[in-house]
Design goal:
Radius of gyration: 14 Å
Helix content: 25-40%
Largest sheet: 5 strands, parallel
Shape: globular
Oligomer: single chain
Order of helices and strands: EHEHEHEHE
Strand order of the largest sheet: 3-2-1-4-5
Distance between the termini: 29 Å
CATH architecture: 3-Layer(aba) Sandwich
Structural class: alpha/beta
Length: 132
Amino acid sequence: MYHVVIGVDDNEERAMACARAVADLPGDASEKRVTVIHSFTDNPSGASASQLASVRDVTDFLEERGIEIEVTESSGDPADQLLEVAQEEDADLIVVAGRKRSPTGKALFGSVTQSVILNAERPVMVAGEARE
């Protein structure tokens, strides 16, 4: 079983780019297991991760393809939380979304993505722009 951890924020397009990247990985859907994590930095309303459209879109998309899904949530620094879950779950791969940047910022990833890439002890895939 190939275990992937996907870090999802509240942006639906970036979340779906990650989901498509995982669905496109080699191997049968039954050989993949995904943990979707959303880390709340501020959650005054007490929402759960499964209430976010981005998380629902990813779980629906992957479940429709027969991929086993688990949703987890945390609070705190998103990069730290994503790395912690990947370590605890002994994930084979971490998937995060990239962002389109201005010419000046093209050499830089978002702060969460950059932190995950630099601090991960396992492979990290950066998913590109969402496809229509």
